[in-house]
Amino acid sequence: MKRLPFVPGEWIDRKTIHAFEFEGRTYAGFAGDTVTSALLASGVTVLGRSFKYHRPRSVLSFANHDVNVLVQSGPTPNVRADATPVADGMRLAAVNTHGGLARDHARWLDKLSAFLPVGFYYKAFHSKEWFPKWERMFRALTGLGRVDTAAPTRKTPKRYDFCDVLVIGAGPSGLAAALAAANAGASVVVADENAHAGGSGLYNLGGDRTTEARTLALLTAVAGHLRIRMLTGTTAAGYYADHWVPLVDATRLTKMRARAVIVATGAFEQPAVFRNNDLPGVMLASAAQRLIYRHALQPGARAVVVTANADGYRAALDLQAHGVTVAAVVDLRDAPSPGLAQRVGRHGTDLLPGHGVVEALGRQGVKGVRVAPLDSAGAPTGKARLYGCDLVLMSVGWAPAAAPLYQAGATMRYAERVHQFVPAAVPPGVFACGRVNGIHAYDARLLDGERAGMDAARHLGITVGEGPAVPVETEPASHPWPIFAHARGKNFVDFDEDLQLKDFHNAAQEGFDNIELLKRYTTVGMGPSQGKHSNMNAVRILARILGKPIGEVGTTTARPFFHPVPLSHLAGRAFHAERVTPLHERHVALGAKLMNAGVWLRPEYYDVPGQTRLEAIREEALAVRQGVGLIDVGTLGKIEIHGPQAAEFLERVYTGRFANMTVGTTRYGLMVDESGVVIDDGVIARLGERRWYFTTTTSGAATVYRELTRLNTMWRLACGIVNVTGHMAAMNLAGPKAREVLGALTASDVREAVFPYLAARELDIAGIPTRALRVGFVGELGYEIHVPADRAVELWDALMRAGASFGVRAFGVEAQRLLRLEKGHLIVGQDTDGLTTPFECGCAWAVKMDKPFFVGQRSLAIVAKRPRQMLVGFEPGEGADQVAECHLVIEQGDIAGRVTSIAWSPTLGRHIGLAMLRPDLAQPGGTFTIRVTDGSTVPARIVPAPFYDAEGRRLKMAEAA
Amino acid sequence: MSAFVQRTDAPRAGVKGPAAAEWLATRGLPVPAKPNTWLPLAAGGVIGRLAYTEFFVEGDAAPDIEREASGAPAGVYPVLRRDLGLVLAGPAALDVLAQTCNVNFDALDLATRPLVMTSMVGVSVLVIPEQRDDGIAYRIWCDPTYGPYLARTLHAIAAEEDGGLAPARPPHASTISRGGP
């Protein structure tokens, strides 16, 4: 293959040279070259090795539709060399070789192909004994590029974009569609995966520049149209609901939302199946045309063209126009394309209608091809004629690039007239035109594009006239059977997976005779090309094996993504929403070690120099037990409910009774779903006759608010629900000295008699209006103080200052978890699971079954007597320090429960825990066994909870006389 | 191209309920006729209609609204608003929005005074695009606990846009401005 003199329209810039390395040798290419074109221009003929048999490979489609040329580029694996621009300093190597491309030690596998039939690995893995050995061997032999985990992170920000009409494909029909829609007034975006727009209108020329001139005129019109944006180098990677199409370019993924989508994706040229059709030098006709017109490469010196349509003759003319001797045109049809055949024949080319290919000859590249007349079944017969050549072009048919249509919900039918699947019905707002629509003639494609563009405009509500009539194809562009059996095989159907014709016969014989089963057993279409060059032939083969029409065999499912998308593109900027309370900076200043609690960033504990994490946590807990502590509980859900029927609403959504609460009191609230499973809990305060304020769990706030809103939309009670979670801050002042600290900051009477346990008061603290709730989650005298977010820092500072003389200490989430465990208080979601009812977690007291109604009441009535598990308190025996949350309880070899909470209590001087147990094990004083991480077991004894202050005296501690 | 993010401090308040619109009108405030629209307040600030029965007020009128809503008649419920307020502006503001939010702000008709409630980098936000002499500025409000994250993220993206107008540090958003009575 050699570089041609200047070719008008070539993509390369001959003044700019890039030096790069391939397989350890240095080469040069022009700017605008792809890696493949630069290597071919440098005289490299073998560019890759096949996946299974390690056969030499080179260009097949030169259109990113196959992976014959897959390279490792520095840390980046599996770079598609056909479509990747060459760049200075690139260091490239072929993937899937052992010892380099030229000396690939695995090439002996080609000799053993008879022992590696279709599905051999499934059968290999059938033996348990041999499984590990096979697995090691396969892993060693297979795989494509290498993942470099140390590769630097690439920033690929995603973005959203919008248009009236998205046209996928900038070939002739796509350009015509875009112009028609834009001329009607629509804003249009055209996306094309190629570096330059124009599609086949700039390379499928038949040695005549007329088509190119017309396409350039279209491009000029598009470029000058104010309502059209052209995105080249951009792949429409899939289609999602409501015309949502991810557009992938080199740097980012764009989420394009269109009002209408025109699929002008064209078609994939399909290979003929004959022996050695994978030799370097055997390629699709359109690949050769792209090499000529885009990269000024003469693809060979002497060629044979195997064809079954007009495109093959045009390719032959393009070869002839660029100095390639076309020895023969082998036409599978009896009647060649009129006009074109005569033009080709003028150059002394043998025209062989009604002929097929017996085999290609050569080892590292094609040296010749044997052709013979076809019999009535389409099989070569009689004496074969040998043509020496270094290039064989295949132009026998097309498969529609219909993935976006399938994903949009279009139905496709096999049209016998053109031997191609074409859209039968498309969803509203989706349109197809051009080759994907079964229209192949250039003029017809322009008309079909114009028709689609006008249809799209009409869909947008724009008044347009009738679109042009599109003439029917005069000859099929595809042949129904471009497939030639050979006794010695190596006639490849799928180049990714090295699947030969016989593999399909064998698979069908073994019972995999449905297209989906066949796909999975043979893996046809499951390689990186995703069937772009193999699925259509596979369907034709299966149809013939089964004796069914192709339309009846059908196609496999086309799922997004249509084309590989780098994970970095999907990750984008990797946004992770994060919440902090207004006191965050205070926590940081106090040395807080922060932890993620859902989306919240919370202090786990406050670091103390010289102390370990556990020591710090235990000291914080002791400070609360013995003096006073302050914790930020602003992450709790905080909801207000106002209105005359607020109490009624609460009665319905919580299991407890609230209507009888007096103003200024609080009550524990437990929420279950309609199946009776505990979903949330909190404290409910009555602030006025018609005004309530309640908390939810940190993780449940948004969900609970959403569910309450939904319920009241249905119930239409006279009340309004207001979520103030982020707008209110909250902190819990707890410990025997809490009242003294609070009393120093308020003029209100906070004595036990006036502001008792479970009371709620609205009072000024340090001059700040607050809501204070007497709660006892940590088991001490405590005030949960709620304040508008903008006053939180002020209040925190005041409490810390006032508490200084009492040794006040900020405490974090871990100390709170320890303190509540000592008190036997459960944490919803930790000590309960997705099936736990209130009767199973010691909360039966919070359920008032005699109420007229609450959500989940009927379910609870059913399950009340059939607990599945029971939450119990326990103390582990020897080995207690090995017990961790989620360790399993094992009873006679079976799982009988799990540890939900466990900690060493500095107050009690021993380990304590909560566990969910099978009801028959959950007997007071009973024992059970916990299996810990290393597989050993630890005994445990059931003890009553709370472990600390069971009578609750400390919660109601009166002030000193 | 450049974009910048600035924090705005102004008192805010909210009310909701079936009688909220009428109550606001009796207080002399203009009431947007349709949900997802806003009106300017004579004394400065804005009033936005978030739904048929919910309103957001920013400006000097807010403290009074917050205080009086607590004692408002049946059908009017106070909504505590301590949102973080930001302004995103500059020639590349739309580009920043395109990377953070799936609403097509470019298609909005500013003459209709649209108010957009959507999600931006995973955070629920209110957005009012406002035509100013030097271009369109996007006023953004969010739950204050998400404020530092949203401000930091928008700032980082805006800072990537060339021009150097973005401040060297993200707008300080962890301390919530004092609002209300």
Quickly list its features.
heterodimer, A: 961 residues, alpha+beta, Ubiquitin-like (UB roll), FAD/NAD(P)-binding domain, 7 domains, B: 181 residues, Gyrase A, domain 2, Alpha-Beta Plaits, five-stranded antiparallel beta sheet, globular, disordered C terminus
Task: Domain count of chain B, please report it.
Answer: 2
In quaternary terms, these chains amount to heterodimer
What general outline of chain B do the C-alpha atoms trace? globular
Which word captures the global form of chain A?
Answer: elongated
What does this structure look like?
The complex is a heterodimer of chains A (961) and B (181). Helix content of chain A is 23%, strand content 28%. Chain A has 961 residues and is α+β, with helices and mostly antiparallel strands. In chain A, strands 9, 10, 11, 12, 13, 14 and 28 form a 7-stranded mixed beta sheet that branches. Chain A has a 6-stranded mixed beta sheet with strand order 40-41-42-39-33-43. In chain A, a hairpin with a 4-residue loop joins strand 46 and strand 47. Chain B has 2 domains: 84 residues, Gyrase A, domain 2 (2-Layer Sandwich); 68 residues, Alpha-Beta Plaits, CATH 3.30.70. Chain B has 181 residues and is α+β, with helices and mostly antiparallel strands. The C terminus of chain B is likely disordered. In chain B, strand 9 and strand 10 form a beta hairpin. Chain B has 4 helices and 10 strands; from the N terminus they run E-E-H-E-E-E-H-E-E-H-E-E-E-H. The interface between A and B is large, with 40 and 38 residues.
Write the layout of secondary structure elements.
The complex is a heterodimer of chains A (961) and B (181).
Chain A: E1 2-3, E2 13-22, E3 25-31, H1 35-41, E4 48-49, E5 56-57, E6 70-73, E7 76-80, E8 91-94, H2 120-124, H3 131-141, E9 159-168, H4 172-183, E10 188-191, H5 210-223, E11 228-231, E12 235-236, E13 244-248, E14 253-263, E15 267-269, E16 282-284, H6 285-295, E17 297-298, E18 302-307, H7 310-321, E19 325-331, H8 340-345, E20 350-353, E21 355-362, E22 366-373, E23 385-388, E24 391-395, E25 398-400, H9 403-408, E26 411-415, E27 420-425, E28 430-432, H10 442-459, E29 492-494, E30 499-500, H11 501-509, H12 515-522, H13 535-546, H14 550-553, H15 567-571, H16 584-589, E31 592-597, E32 600-606, H17 613-626, E33 629-632, E34 637-642, H18 646-653, E35 666-672, E36 678-688, E37 691-696, H19 701-715, E38 720-723, E39 728-734, H20 738-743, E40 760-765, E41 768-773, E42 782-788, H21 792-803, E43 809-810, H22 813-822, H23 857-863, E44 870-876, E45 888-891, E46 894-905, E47 910-917, E48 927-931, E49 937-943
Parallel strand pairs in A: 2-8, 9-10, 9-14, 10-11, 14-28, 16-24, 18-19, 18-24, 19-20, 33-43
Antiparallel strand pairs in A: 1-17, 2-3, 4-5, 6-7, 6-8, 12-13, 13-14, 15-25, 21-22, 22-23, 26-27, 29-30, 31-32, 33-39, 34-37, 34-38, 35-36, 36-37, 39-42, 40-41, 41-42, 44-47, 44-49, 45-46, 45-48, 46-47, 48-49
Helix pairs in contact in A: 4-5, 4-10, 6-7, 11-13, 17-22
Chain B: E1 4-8, E2 12-16, H1 20-26, E3 37-40, E4 46-51, E5 54-58, H2 62-69, E6 77-79, E7 84-89, H3 93-98, E8 116-120, E9 123-132, E10 135-142, H4 147-160
Antiparallel strand pairs in B: 1-7, 2-5, 2-6, 3-4, 4-5, 7-10, 8-9, 9-10
